[in-house]
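2024-03-11 09:14:02 INFO receiving multi-entity request
2024-03-11 09:14:02 INFO entity count = two
2024-03-11 09:14:03 INFO echoing inputs for audit
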Amino acid sequence: SQELEQSPQSLIVQEGKNLTINCTSSKTLYGLYWYKQKYGEGLIFLMMLQKGGEEKSHEKITAKLDEKKQQSSLHITASQPSHAGIYLCGAGPSGTYKYIFGTGTRLKVLA
Amino acid sequence: DAGVIQSPRHEVTEMGQEVTLRCKPISGHDYLFWYRQTMMRGLELLIYFNNNVPIDDSGMPEDRFSAKMPNASFSTLKIQPSEPRDSAVYFCASSLYFFGGEETQYFGPGTRLLVL
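2024-03-11 09:21:47 INFO inference complete, emitting structure
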């Protein structure tokens, strides 16, 4: 079955450091979404990538989708405590009509 | 818009009891999704509706789970009878399209269910 693997599972960084979270699929993806979740809250949409090689940025967060549309990375520059939370990738694999999500990456930023 | 509204936010019940979770989607959204999130399995799609009609319920774990959408502004997820392994956070989400550019699912705050 289609799965999205995220790495790392958890991450602790010092404030100001850069970090990267990866999301990998074994199949080509129709679209790749990145969400952020804080404890006790729902998922907040960050960015959506649809084209191979696409890259988008919002404030200090940049997401990329590789040319094969099977791997995406989320990069945070100069991390801040406000970046802490769980980051999930979500996707709709080509040829299916389902949403699937990665297992999430827990990020903690130390002040 | 107030966003997706879920109730209750927390539910503690005893094994065997019936549990009903409620969701009000964003007005105008044609799709409604129910998800379950656990540490072990992550976020799983249980069922989704299009224009109040259930389209795919293949994620519903057992016959103990049922979902309805009697109108465009209300949906319920019912568990009867509940079991301890049903303990999880249940999210409702709605969207205008299933897939479409920047259009995405908007998630409610979730219902934390604990079955003792």
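2024-03-11 09:21:48 INFO post-check: The mean pLDDT of chain B is 92.
2024-03-11 09:21:48 INFO post-check: Chain B touches chain A through 22 residues (CB under 8 Å).
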